[in-house]
Amino acid sequence: MKSVPGRSCGEQVEPGKRCIAEGWCALDGFLKRYRMKIDLRQRRLPQPRLPDEYRWIPWRRVLLERHALVKWQAFRNDLDGQVFPSLGDLDGCRRLMNEITSQPRFCPSATWLLTRQPTSDDAPQDCASIQGILRRNCIGAIQNVGVIPEHRCKGLGRSLVLQALHGFRFSGMHHGVLEVTSENRIAVNLYESMGFEICEVLYRNSSTGEVVSELPE
Q1: Which of left, alpha, beta for 206 (phi over 0: left; psi -120 to 50: alpha)?
Q2: Collapsed DSSP state (helix, strand, coil) of residue 143
Q3: Has residue 104 got a pLDDT over 60?
């Protein structure tokens, strides 16, 4: 077994590692991820702004299927959807939403759906979602920032994260955390611009989602 200590940005790929798709893994089936953290006590959080035609839908249990469908549409053709089976499959997204919302410390105030409705005569179109969980030590954990491809480049991801962070602060959390694939530079740059900092480098088993500390030779 090969140990996997924490590593910093800009490291060189060691022998035995190789690139896949838009990110690189330490051998097949292991995805390199950054855990990023923001201090909610020190950081001023602006109010999220949405483009015209978009609106917030707060969490209700009846919305679980709609969250799952948005999650699947957002991730099915992305790297995370390719390497995490639950994100690339609609039934997997349903199970994931059930797991998230059934946790004792699920955070409804950090869980939101975004819809677009150009006019009152148009049917609302679900286009983005986010979920949150409260953890020990006053940490709020963001789950799956998902924006359907045709609604990207409109600032919706930033607004989703801000809305979730306000929900964590309302719930008494001191920090917000999230994970992102290391080579998703657009997302990493977005989170850094909001005040998140990389606090840990992880390798996750793409089949189970579990963090590994050692990799097979």
Answers
A1: alpha
A2: strand
A3: yes
- Structure tokens belonging to residue 180: 């992102």
Task: Find, among 60, 38, 40, the residue nearest to 170 by Cα.
Answer: 40
Strand 175-181 to 139-147 pairing: parallel
Residue 11 has pLDDT above 50, yes or no: no
Alpha-carbon separation of residue 196 from 4, 148, 161, 200 (angstroms): 23, 23, 11, 12
* Pairwise CA distance, residues 87 & 92, whole Å: 6
Question: Does residue 132 surpass a pLDDT of 70?
Answer: yes
Interatomic CA distance for residues 133 and 111, integer angstroms: 9
Q: Residue 32 forms beta bridges with which residues? A: 203
**Does pTM top 0.90 for this prediction?**
no
For 76-112, letters b (16+ CB in 10 Å) and e give bebbbbbbbebbbbeebbbebbeebbeeeebbebbbb
Q: Hunting for tokens 């979730």 — which residue is that?
A: 164
Pairing of strands 23-25, 30-39: unpaired
pLDDT at residue 209 in the model = 66
The candidate with the shortest Cα–Cα distance to 33, out of 59, 54, 1, 4, is 4
Q: Say how many residues make up the chain.
A: 217
